[in-house]
Amino acid sequence: QARDEVGGGISARIGDYWHVGVSGKYDLTLDRPALIQGNIGYEDECFILEGLFMKRFAQDLVTNQYYPANTVVLFRIGFKTLGQYFLRAI
Asked: In degrees, to the nearest 5, what angle opens at C-alpha 84 toward C-alphas 80 and 9?
């Protein structure tokens, strides 16, 4: 099935260490959102802290209703001299 989507996003630095961003996709064929996500992070010379929220939408083929297909909450901690650790909360 062909899918026509439009997407966009914006991100910004806040001060020297913080950044935030949001983005999304909209399905033009089904006239509904396909994806929304946002992130916030902190990064300095020693470590990185970042959080990501993402929600995808799907369609029930029987009822033609759309519903949240999956939701992801991800936290990342990175130590620039040691490595990174990821934790998926949902």
From this structure: 95
